[in-house]
Amino acid sequence: MATFAFQVNGQASTVTVDDPSTPLLFVLQENFQLNGPRFGCGLSQCGACTVLLDGQPIRSCVTDVSSADGHSVTSLEGLAALDGLPDPNALHPIQEAFVAEQAGQCAYCISGPILYGYVFVRDHPGASRADIEQGISGDLICRCCTNYRMINAIVRYAGADPRGREYRR
Amino acid sequence: MKPKNPLQLEGARPLSAKAIDVLEHLDASRRDFLKTAGVMMIGFGVAATTGRAQSTINPSGNVDTTQVDSWVAIGADESITVLAGKCDFGQGLRTIQYQLAAEELSVPMDRITLVLCRTGVSPDQGYTAGSFSTWTQFGGGGLRVALDTARDALFQLASQYLDVDVSQLTVQNGVFSVTGGDPTWTVSYGQLVQGKRFNLTVNPQAVPNNPSTWTILGQSVPRVDLPAKAKGTFQYVQKVRIPGMLHGKVVRAAFLGAHLQNIDKSAISGLAGNPQVVQVNDFVGVVADTEWHALKAANALAGAITWSAGDTFPAQANLYTYMTQQPSRDAFAVNTGDVDTVMWSAARVIRAQYLYPFQMHGSLASSCAVADVRGTGKTATVKAWSATQSVYDVRTYLSTLLSIPTANIEVIQVEGSGCYGGNGNDPVTFDAALLSQAVGKPVRLQYTRKDEMTAGEHYGHPMVSNQTAGLDAGGTIVTWDNETFLMVHGEGPLAGFTQGGAPGPGNFISGALAGFPTALVVPTATPANPAGGLFWDFGNSVPPYCTGSVNGVSLGTGTIASQRSLTRLVESQLWTSYLRSPDHIQNTWSNESFMDEIAARQQQDPVLYRIRHLADQRLIGVINAVTQNALWDTRPSPKPGNARTGVVTGRGVSCVLYSGFDGYCAVVAEVSVNQDTGVITLTKVTAGIDTGPVINPDGLRNQMEGQVLQGMSRTLLEEVKFSNLGAGGVGGGTVTTNDWDTYTVLEFGDNIPEIDTVLINNLKVPPTGAGETIITLMPAAIGNAVYDATGVRLRQIPLTPANFLAAKAAQKV
Q1: Based on the domain organization, do B263 and B211 belong to the same domain?
Q2: Mapping DSSP to helix (H, G, I), strand (E, B) and coil, where does residue B328 land?
């Protein structure tokens, strides 16, 4: 048995497992009952399990729980709290942008586009639409193929489009 | 590329707190729902003791679809509960049914609580599939007529209560008043119904509200589910958690069609998490305390089983030849009997063959279900949470599979990821139930990616299509003949429809492993005539340019009177079932590419040549709308002046009336092709649709855009591959496309085209389907554009660089 201590969506937590190589996704799903990170492939090929580890996107399906020890994990549910929004249960502005663009159908994939979009815009101030189209890539799949709208949503969040300015922080 | 559809939705969630609770509340019976709705329960569900014939639930757990009370309940607290049997798996049907109920009952959406797809709770509306849901729910046999019957009854009650004629009544937000009368002289739905039941039979003739008066339908109402999905709180079936729930995994046969010969169950002894082996004939699985424990046990067990070599099947390179040499089950969609004669006298005959591969649903989530089987014998009970498209059919299959009466089985639909047809949702439900029955505890089972793509998957049909057309001296097509081979196996719920077999769990991969019989293709001595003696083009095998004449009745969209369309089903070694636009996308790839070939050989503009052979004004209308928006360059293909090396551009068109009745659509695709590398890039798509009154413009555009891109993915990238590695070529076959690296699909970062959607808001006809329309047109539109750009005619999907270069070399372009 091994016990690991880490923050999950701002809450200090510990978890005890018999195998330190247990995927973080299964711990978030079973021990923390999170619905945001989702199992798609278990192979780091689709992005549905994406969470932020100390603010950087990782694939929780291929990340051992031991790697989270001493770190901070943020899933879709915790994005508003991460940025200190007054109501942690409200939608984060990038989530608002996805709803505003109606960017999703089944939306099972949405952890990937939202969290990679959030990090890309954070790390690339003033990113253009073309930057975003190229930057949001790499083993990320929306099988309903709402790619067009999801890119629109990230562009809106980035403020790269006039319609998105109100979201610019 | 400019973003489109500037909506001002900003997280709007037009549902009541109760409706949201129901959306995410998984454990309530119909009685509970209606209790909370404030409906009096007297006589409800107890027909035997009260003698009330109008009870809507019979002891078998069925809900009587002919009764208004099965569909709508109005509480004394003014709450409105609507129950329906068409489910949402990402296409937006939940939102649309909210809109429909609100519109027909003249209340805002937040007055309504919608409950979908639970056995014993919602009416049995069969499978939510085939692009039929809009047609069903808005037509004469679904939710709309039940709502309108209720609305008419409320008007009658209000007329009596207020003592005025129905024609003098106005209703707003569920409150009646008298037009021009005392404004305080009102009565509400709740006051009229007083929490009682309607006790009314659904009137199939009930008249819908006129689309020209719509205030909620026809609007871009935002998706009710999307805020929770974006926030991460939405409960997919993958996130159902039941107290005491264990986790399962399946261990599938190493080879296709293999049988279990030996299993060493001790392989998992000593592993953590209390793993147990479950084996029922060739069905093998494990159950353990956590998902990780189950996965490790499954991996350990997989190496401890000996399987037989399995089925023998053709090498992939020989698949299409093999398909045309097997005993087949043949049926005509049309056969006017004069095709050979007219062809013989034609001035010119043109032939071509088109090929389409096995493709897979490739759902983003691997499929998942939770099953809770308790007890044994006649008193055993089952509760299953499933992303199935039909809770009642799954209940029937579970009853056979588990030998438990249907009355003891409850199936609750919980949304999974997009399924695009008969993916692993039903098989995984059966698997979870087998595991739960064996261990007597609730079991959650989610497939691995490999399971999803190889061992729970029923693929879409591969096709070989032989096309022949006869033209007169003026270049007009006078006869059209096609012969289509499709490969099928199992087919899930469609076994009776396709193979002529008996329904049962053995038509799904998991039921077959558990020992239930699979219906095989029953070959025919001579082709069957059109079913029921009517034109029924489910599969779109009949080209849009034919009259669709069967027994003197012409229901097609074209003018060509001499026609024959023969479909020949042969047995497949891979499991198959319906995949979005089933057979329609294959047949339309063939028909619409061939039409383009004929037009090119006649040196005719592809749009004008199509219209010359069309009679249906709605189809012509949507073609004209799309080509106008696309600034169609009227001229024959190929495009004059294009070099035969380097990068060139071109445009292509295709059109169809989906299923022969369910959505008129047309697409113009624009491509650039690097003729040296063979890389095809889709640069712009103009997609247009006439499905009657537009119910939710933004929702329709969302569906159309997704279909453009999924259609592009299926056209350019997707093909299931398999190997046949057994000794002497016997057995040992496996599907080798078993993850996202080997089964390539559209990903973020890939090129996506500019998309222009054209909606024709046709208020004069009832609404029809849209979910499988545009995707049907994508392969031919892209292939035709490639021909326009390069002069190379592509006849095999996917349109990979290798296929392009091979065709260019073979055609000496």
Answers
A1: no
A2: coil
Cα separation, B749 vs B697, whole angstroms: 28
- Residues constituting chain B: 813
Question: Given this model, what pLDDT does residue B60 score?
Answer: 64
CA distances, B669 to each of B301, B620, B691, B804 (Å):
50, 18, 21, 17
Mean pLDDT of B79-87: 93
Q: Domain containing B213: what range? A: 17-231
**A33 vs B contacts (CB less than 8 Å):** 241
Among A60, A80, A100, give the residue marking a domain's end.
A80
Q: Is the pLDDT of residue B4 over 50?
A: no
Q: Residue range B729-750: average pLDDT?
A: 91
- Using the 3D structure, point to which of B412, B427, B455 is the last residue of a domain: B455
**Over residues B524-539, mean pLDDT:** 90
- Same domain assignment for residues B171 and B303: no
Name chain A contacts of B95, Cβ cutoff 8 Å.
none
Q: A168, A38, A160: which is closest to A111 by C-alpha?
A: A38
What is this model's ipTM? Answer: 0.96
The pLDDT score that the predictor gives to residue B24 is: 57
pLDDT in tens, B278-300: 999 999 999 999 999 999 999 99
Most distant pair of Cα atoms in chain A: their distance: 54
Whether B10 is in a domain gets the answer: no
Q: How many helices (H) and strands (E) does chain A have?
A: 6, 5
pLDDT in tens, B135-151: 899 988 899 999 999 99
Cα(B448)–Cα(B286) distance, integer angstroms? 13
Greater model confidence, B311 or B755: B755
Is residue A85 a part of any domain in this protein? no
Q: Tens digit of pLDDT for each residue in B148-205?
A: 999 999 999 999 999 999 999 999 999 999 999 899 999 999 999 988 899 999 999 9
User: What Å distances lie between residue B545 and B624, B655, B663, CA to CA?
Assistant: 16, 10, 16
In whole angstroms, what is the distance from residue B666 CA to residue B656 CA?
7
Question: Domain end: A31, A47, A80, which one?
Answer: A80
Closest chain B residue by Cα to residue A132: B749
Q: Which residues of B touch A59 (CB under 8 A)?
A: none
Q: Can you give the pLDDT at residue B52? A: 30
Let me know whether B223 and B253 are in one domain. Answer: no
Chain B: residue nearest A20 by CA? Answer: B292
User: Both B305 and B163 in a single domain?
Assistant: no
Residue A107 in any domain: the answer is yes
Task: Return d(Cα B94, Cα B699) in angstroms, integer.
Answer: 11
Contact pairs from chain A to chain B, CB under 8 Å: 213
Give Rg (Cα) of chain B: 28
Residues 6+ apart with CB under 8 A from A73: A6, A7, A8, A9, A24, A28, A51, A52, A53, A60
Contacts of residue A38 in chain B, CB cutoff 8 Å? Answer: 236, 238-239, 365
Per-residue pLDDT band for B42 (boundaries 50, 70, 90) equals very low
B646, B675 Cβ separation under 8 angstroms: yes
- Among B172, B205, B231, where does a domain finish? B231
Instruction: Tell me whether B24 touches chain A (CB under 8 Å).
Output: no
- Domain count within chain A: 2
At B257, list the tokens.
């069609």
For residues B754 and B709, state if they share a domain: yes
Q: Is the peptide bond before B638 cis (omega within 30 degrees of 0)?
A: yes
Domain that holds residue A47: 2-80
Query: What is the per-residue pLDDT for B310?
Result: 85
For residue B122, is pLDDT > 70? yes
Cβ-nearest to B231 among A39, A77, A152: A77
pLDDT for position A29: 97
Q: A86 lies in a domain?
A: no
Of B226, B708, B740, which has the smallest distance from its Cβ to A45's Cβ? B740
Whole-prediction pTM: 0.95
